[in-house]
UniProtKB/TrEMBL annotation:
TM ranges: 29-49, 85-104, 116-137, 143-159, 164-184, 214-233, 271-292, 319-338, 358-377, 397-418, 425-443, 455-474, 486-511
Organism: Salinicoccus hispanicus
Molecular functions (GO terms): secondary active p-aminobenzoyl-glutamate transmembrane transporter activity
Descriptive protein name: TIGR00366 family protein
An example Gene Ontology biological process: p-aminobenzoyl-glutamate transmembrane transport
Amino acid sequence: MENGRKKNGIFQKFLDFVEWLGNKLPHPVTLFALLAGLTLVASAILSMLEITVEHPADDQGTVSVNNLLNGEGISYIFSSMTDNFINFAPLGVVLMTMLGIGVAERSGLISAALRGFVLAIPNQLITAGLVFAGIMSSLASDAGYVVLPPLGAVLYLALGRHPLAGLATAFAGVSAGFSANLLLSGTDAMLSELSIAAASVLDPQYAEGMNVAMNYYFIFVSVFLLTLVGWFVSDKIVEPRLGSFDSKNADEEAVNSTDEMNPLEPIEKKGLVWAITSMVVGALLASLLVLLPNSPMRGDDAVGDYMDTIIQSPFMSDGLVPIIAILFFIPGLVYGLITKSIRNDKDVADQMTKTMAAMGMFIVLAFTAGQFVAYFAESNIGLVIGVYGAELLETLNLTGIPLIIGFMFVTAVVNLFIGSASAKWAMMAPIFVPIMMQLGYSPELTTMAYRVADSSTNIITPLMTYFAIIIAFAQQYDRNIGIGTLISVMLPYSIFFFVAWAIMLIVWMLFGIPLGPNAPIEYVG
């Protein structure tokens, strides 16, 4: 990591300090185990202090910190341990997706496709293309976190660039993509429904006029802003700081899996053509599961218009992960059969087995991370922190743009403790949406401000559920990499995204531009 690294500049020295400090922490597996233990101790102390808050939802009464070290808590620890591991959100998504990606990678398809991609476009546009792909990947929900960062690392390595820069570029794009896209996604539906419910408490009539596309105009334009910002940060800050890649601490298989940028052989071109054809056919067949009336994975027609039935369908919520795995598996199989890298079913099973073996570190990490996330949620510590943050913002008596910026900072802080965007907004929307409405700001604006702060800071909080898998991917190229290194690499993206996005939101407010269809900046009761 130190070889050829750029050291000049105050900001670079600050990032070096962040990395040094963060890497003083234990191994990520140990760290999550320690955090789980600290959560248990904190829950006991805060419970004894009888700290309580009013639940954001009016009908939930008061909330106190649950003591996880009393008799009932200890019973919970042991009875939930297996479920905490198995139900850790990224575990199933990652392993399911990697089964398909593993065949595509080990058959040679991904390497050939990347070589073809790199040779077809100017090198100057590689970074921008990777950021853009990351942003658009939110259409596939969380699968982007699993698919694009490792592909970005492989792509950069094939170009002779630092693989961690490619991983970071894709990771930044995927995180930002949950609040920036050219199309609507399941995230829009999920967050907008929570905003509508919160607004209906104060003004049911206004809430009836709100819609899933309430932030669409803003997130559409955000795609282009964030692509440019991510491109700048990657090429001018992150990659120069990382310097040249030293493979002495990398997994030999990961480094050797990338071919040089030689032109594709005729057999590779033939394999690519048939693989792409099979992927297109598979995607078309999969789309029939949701697009046609009465399709088996279509949403309830009663939920709204045609797009609503797609966005809020089982296809988008639960079906995308296995479909994405299949859409990698089939082309990988086709490519392997044509190029003879797959000759029989034993080769397929062997490739999938090796892929799962390579995920061993992540599986161990998922166990300790799963315990910590579950204990933190069960203790109610995150909820208490969020409510106190809201009360702090109220006491500051801010108005106008300072109010919006203050709200974004509160969101960013809460995001360090609660990784799930929907869980945070379910907690924060009932508090902040009515407050902002009473101050003359629309629920749509409050929702967008929340999304900007949440997406900008996801990449620097270890509590974001996919942070663990990103570390596991990064350790393939530097087995000594720690949380501090990853945070220091991602921090420039977080800062620049937050600042640029906040400026864009302020401009939007000053000009009174609607955030989406029938979604004004101001609220008039």
